[in-house]
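Lab channel / #folding
Pinned by the channel admin:
"Please post every new chain as: sequence first, then the structure tokens as a reply. Keep commentary short and put observations after the output so the thread stays searchable."

First post following the new format, from NK:
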Amino acid sequence: MKKAILFSVLLSAGSMVSGQNISSKKWSDLFSYNNVLAIKEDNGRLMAATENGIFYYNLSSGEITKLSKANGLHEVKISAFDYNPDTKIGLIGYRNGSMDVVTPNGITYVVDIPIATGYNGDKRINHISISGDRAVISVGYGVSIFDLKKKEFAQSAFFTTGTGFEAANEATIKDNTVYAATATGLKRHDIDVTFPVYSTWTTQTAGSFIHADSENTTVFATANTVYYGNGTAFSPLTQTFGNVSDVVVTDQHITVTDNERIYVFSTSGSPVNSAGFGQPCNTGTYIGGQVFAGTQRSGIMNAAKTSIKPDGPYNNRSYKIEINNNRLWVSSGARKDRYNGSQPDPANLGFYHFDGMQWVYSTMFIENTDTVFNVLDVVSNPSDTDEIFFANHTEKPGQGIYKMKYDVTAKDFTLQKFYPTSTNHSYNRPTGLAFDRNNNLMGTIGFLFNNATNSLSAGIMAYDRAADTFLTRNLPVSFTTQKPVFYKDMMWIPLPRTTDMVAYDYKNSPLNFSDDVVYTITDQNGLPTNSEGTVSVAFDKNDDAWIGTDTGLRILPSASTDVKNSPQLEPVIIEQNGIPEELFRDGAILQVEVDSGNFKWVSVDGGGAYLLSANGERTLLHLTRENSPIPTNSITDIKVDNKTGKVYFVTFDGIVVYQSDVVDVTSNFGNVLVYPNPVVTANFKGFVTIRGLAEKTNIRIVDAAGNLVHQAVARGGFHQWDLNNQRGRRVASGVYFVLMTNADGTDKATAKIAVVN
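Reply from TO:
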């Protein structure tokens, strides 16, 4: 391992540019489309806004398409949406206060929303209502008028009070008047020169109002009463409501969403239709005599309770992912206070599973409302992937390990056994599980109580399949643990609350603790002295361990042998402007992953993900939420499927997938692919990529006459050619032949590249 490494760190973009598209064909999303916030209709097509994207449903063909940050949008966490079918313009508002303007000609990102001076509250877009070429935007400090043609803001009214600001929950435009639903009444004002002056606004009706919408009729609502009228005179609907979650007005109908039921009225207030959906609904609409609900758990639902949505996990909240032969298991848990306390999501989510065909969510997590689930890890048995175990890291009853079996026919999991880890739920908190190469299941446990010494420490678990129980052993290190990693018949355990890491040699006999050896790495071995814990570890093809701490990265060369002999860890030293610096100094390294080309994927808390060359000499990619579809710069897990080259980025805001060029790299060639091919200069200005190469590949590119135009040695399974010849000039139009051999000449491959200038 080199002590001095030249390294160029790419800085992420500071702000987005209007119209910038950060997606590409290399990206896809694994977002949840269950929680529908708004539904709009255009010529037989339903458009549904969900937390992380929009999906379109063709009523006649049943076709579903989706739009997200992976293919055009600029953000996640949608909070508002409206669409004008006449102009074909949609407006998407986000929780961070930005917007996307979606038109047939593209998507424009808007970040310059007016903010009231002195306002320090939530910037989320509460509501959007389009009328012609104008939209009224409701926020926590008032309303703004947005010009959809110019894609810029016009007037803004900041609802200032004697003690601060009043939020506009929802607002709508009727003719040239804005009606705003606030906690102190329905406010109104014509769009004129005095519009920005809040003292000139009038209170149409006093009360605490939540919703507002209009078309030919104006409708506004409290939590249990809906009013309709012509803008000056209003009457309440005769229906009594329990909890109004939305009102939607069209030319002919008023649709009211009341928790699990949708009611439809004429614009004169007469009942037309209603339907119940058996689950909480956010919104509803009435189209072609059919009631459609925007549910919280099942996407769009019609009156027959048929779910309409793109396939995806149950929820966006994700923590760790397990991959096995195109099957996925995603845990949703978390910890707080420096990995000390349990932090379950209020929705009690558990885990989600992709069975190779579709996403599945266990009914146990919906029906078992008594147990608090904070699933930190879920693993499948390599010899029977339908058998899974998950670690429930909670400080409540239900703490422990669960064994479940997947029923392929029922598309559900059945609980086989629950293994409680303690009756005192402050102790013995399971954190991670893993199978070794012999299919032995072992795990890590935090705050394991030691009866002999009446003390707490980190610990390990081993599953005794014959007795169907878990055995535990205390480790001579304190407190909690991370998910273990098996390497060279040892279990490597990061310890996030102490400057230590453990390599646990269980002598290939996990149920016999008597001869086991614990190797402890500390700051005396080179871990950062200012670190409070180790967080992640991965191993590369050179037998080096890449250890992520909460204050930087360390490398343990020849890890499998040197860990036993007072090892010395090395920081990665980079050179910035001629000055040597430590790579990722003081950065919390959440995850390190090594792909089949020996490249390193590194997640830095708050800094996105880096792709490093095999020896760390170069940054090949730096992916952030600003320049990629990744939802947030804190990526809790990265996993590479080496068979497909897909890289999974897991965050609490959802999962996205990047198709890398490194696919199942070995000493021989794989499926060699050249793209784009043909290369048409008018359409493409970048590099030609050749993938499916051997670990080391000798490349010669010649023209039709056999003249050498380019040669290189590629490492890591792929190569990029800039289409220049040996003299640095772009090659002429024609067909070029790629001649390739692996390192020892035992395998060969050829390809053709057509160039059209």
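NK: The helical segments are 363-367, 559-562.
TO: also worth noting, The domain at 31-112 is CATH 2.40.10.480 (Thrombin, subunit H).
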